[in-house]
Amino acid sequence: MFEDLIDTTLYEALGLTGVAFYLGSYAALQFDMIDAKGFAYPTLNFLAASFVLISLFENFNFPSLLIQISWITISLYGISKLLIAKSKQDQIEIA
Question: Which one has a higher pLDDT value, 29 or 93?
Answer without folding.
Answer: 29
